[in-house]
Amino acid sequence: MSKSEAPKEPEQLQKLFIRGLSFETTNESVRGYFEQWGMFMDCVVIRDPNTKHCRPFEFVTYATMVDAATNARPHKVDGRVVEPKRAASREDSQRPGAHLIVKKIFVGGNREDTIFLDGDEEHHLRDFE
Q1: What CA–CA distance (Å, rounded) separates 25 from 78?
Q2: Three-state SS for 47?
């Protein structure tokens, strides 16, 4: 299968929701910062219909799925710390528990002699907090 025949990734995997933006934030400042993780297809600053100021969030769509942008925290745009998350459809975002942040991982399938027997599990996993 050639690249041109490869199935396209779902747009939801390419789209990020960026929250915590300044009211003065522009498409150019968001694009200038977040393009380091991939090529943009779209960058939409949401504006208040009355004041025309930037709302404190934006949607960014990359050409391909990008996890690096969400993993490389903290992010700072126009002097404000912002939080990128994978964008969810309106229906998905209204489900109970949709906005919970989970700080647990499951590490399994390891033999007892290959897992952290020296009490170093905190050291090995601390970077993922």
Answers
A1: 7
A2: strand
pTM: 0.59
* 99-113 pLDDT per residue, tens: 555 566 666 666 666
**Per-residue DSSP letter, 113:** T
Are the CB atoms for 51 and 57 separated by under 8 Å? no
Q: Please report, as a single letter, which amino acid is at residue 50.
A: N
DSSP state of 49: T
d(CA 61, CA 54): 18
**Cα–Cα distance for residue pair 52/102, rounded to 1 Å:** 35
User: Domains (ranges, CATH) in the chain?
Assistant: 11-93 (3.30.70.330)
- Strands (E) in 4-129, as ranges, are 15-19, 40-47, 54-62, 75-77, 80-86
- Reported as type and span, the H/E element at residue 60 is strand 54-62
75-77 sheet: strands from edge to edge: 40-47, 54-62, 15-19, 80-86, 75-77
